Amino acid sequence: MAGAERGRRRAPPGRAPGGRPRLVLGALAAALALTAGPTAPTVEILAAPFARERWPDVRSGGSPSHVARVAPAIVGLSARADPAAPSSGRLGRRRFGSGVIFDARGYVLTVAYVLMDAVAVEARLRDGRTVPARVVGIDVDTGLAVARLEGAGPWPTAALGQSRDVAEGQPTATVGVDEDDTLVSVTGRIRAIRRFAGSWEYMLERAFLVAPGSPAWGGSAVVDEDGRVIAVASLRLGRPPGVDVAIPTETFLPVRAELIAAGRVVSRPPRPWLGLYTAATPAGVVVEGVAPVGPASTAGFRRGDLVVSVNGVPVGTQEEFYAQLWRGRAGDVVCVGVRRDATVRVIAVRSADRARLLVPRR
């Protein structure tokens, strides 16, 4: 079992130890189609970590020093979401992902979809401890979240690096855990650094594409050769081993104090949110669906509508769509022009602050 802790009995595919079904996120996978940016073709996101797949051997041999430095701070996070919450329909009620302890007080950095709407969280540490945790903050713009381990510790920590210095081609390791509590480390490189747009009104101006991908990608720490965390793996593109989309630490370092103190980023004006799911196609931006609790759900959009303008400004890509949408503030009325049956019509929607629906109240 190269690159993983040895001596543990592995559960059969699709099952966890003891015969219980694996907790598979389905996160942004079956429900959401993504694109990798304006210069890249549309790519497929497969199932969430630990789905039933035949994986080639992409795990690193042994534990290089940069993996050994971060490994003690890697945790497995099992979350149970409110069944009535908006996210449970798409992401499921039970979720699992990796996280990394970045603060000796027990603060853990992970991806937002693991913790969204969670009512109970449990963390498994590398020393064998299992401790309760609570959701501290969620940044809906970047897709990162913070949890806090309950108890006195001590908590091993990993160092957060400055991702602004990262360049294409730089060696990395992606380190996380699977549901069998096995450490998974994959040696790779930064294949590309570029804008990344997703179907759920999401865009990173500077995302890392890390190859090869990791089977434990959701919330895994991407570290440099010194063992510093430079990004958090969020999504996987393509078939195994694929490429991981990783969120750089530069999106987290300036706002971590706000997330811990307020549960959300308060210094950044909330973006207008419509609740539209779109797909990038050769014809342009096509409506795929609407969020059931979003403003767009009752505005009159239909699946297959082609988005042609926002507030009178023509748009042809998801990047252009988001750039125009986010020029205003949450609460503004947004006029979206769509082409339907050879006719262009304008749909007015009063936008909302997405964080009010997704961020836990204090």
Q: Indicate the CATH architecture of the largest domain.
A: Beta Barrel
Give the topology string: H per helix, E per strand: EEHEHEEHEEEEEEEEEHEEEEEHEEEH
Count of folded domains: 2
The mean pLDDT is 84
Q: Which strand order do you get reading across the main beta sheet?
A: 3-4-5-8-7-6
State the total count of DSSP E strands: 22
Tally of contiguous helical segments: 6
Description:
The chain is mainly beta and 362 residues long. The protein has 2 domains: 1-268, Beta Barrel (Thrombin, subunit H); 272-358, Pdz3 Domain, CATH 2.30.42. It has helices at 65-70, 88-91, 112-115, 256-262, 318-325, 355-358, and strands spanning 34-35, 42-43, 74-81, 94-103, 107-111, 118-124, 130-139, 144-149, 171-177, 183-198, 202-211, 221-223, 229-237, 243-248, 272-273, 276-281, 284-290, 306-310, 313-314, 333-340, 343-350, 352-353. The radius of gyration is 20 Å and the shape is globular.
